[in-house]
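Researcher: Quick test of sequence recovery. Tokens follow.
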């Protein structure tokens, strides 16, 4: 949000990160990895390299810097756009177009199935499900009464096939890059997967 001195909190978080050597250099590293075009195709990035660099940033940079970038509070669109673009979503979050065509969103259940076959993704998703269980009855909105644990688990998914992100510049709503269209009789379990992010009071 705009604090009393009118400063964009996401811009301030980026400046603070730049002043702390480890944060600045690892942030530059993932930005380069996520914006560089892959040799195979001029139109897309190397998503694996991008994800690996993002995970390295989140694992090695103290949370006071990384979380300030990921979860900076915003009350106006410019701030929210900066927040949404923190993880270079054009590579890390959205499926890239092949050539000129845009690839449609994958099905959420196929993302989850893919995640369950990857040891790192599987354990981080389990961590997220455990620590981000929503509860309408608790003050924090979380079953475990610890929003901090939930944010840590949420950030653990960034850089996996289940990378979540902000969906717009006008809200703090987050979601996976997937859809439940075409889920047939598995539509409800697909919606449950999607709602873990988009309708979660704990986040």
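Model:
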């Amino acid at each position: 949000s705009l604090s009393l001195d009118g400063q964009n909190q996401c811009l301030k978080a980026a400046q603070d990160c730049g002043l702390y050597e480890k944060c600045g250099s690892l942030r530059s590293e993932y930005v380069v990895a996520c914006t560089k075009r892959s040799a195979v195709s001029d139109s897309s990035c190397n998503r694996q390299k991008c994800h690996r660099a993002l995970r390295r940033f989140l694992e090695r940079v103290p949370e006071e810097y990384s979380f300030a970038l990921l979860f900076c509070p915003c009350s106006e669109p410019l701030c929210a756009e900066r927040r949404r673009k923190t993880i270079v979503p054009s590579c890390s979050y959205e499926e890239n177009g092949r050539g000129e065509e845009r690839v449609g969103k994958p099905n959420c259940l196929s993302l989850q199935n893919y995640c369950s076959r990857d040891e790192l993704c599987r354990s981080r998703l389990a961590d997220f499900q455990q620590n981000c269980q929503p509860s309408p009855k608790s003050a924090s909105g979380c079953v475990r009464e610890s929003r901090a644990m939930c944010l840590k688990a949420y950030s653990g998914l960034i850089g996996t096939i289940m990378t979540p992100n902000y969906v717009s510049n006008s809200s703090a709503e987050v979601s996976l890059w997937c859809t439940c269209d075409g889920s047939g009789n598995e539509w409800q379990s697909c919606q449950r997967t999607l709602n873990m992010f988009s309708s979660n009071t704990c986040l």
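The chain has a mean pLDDT of 89.
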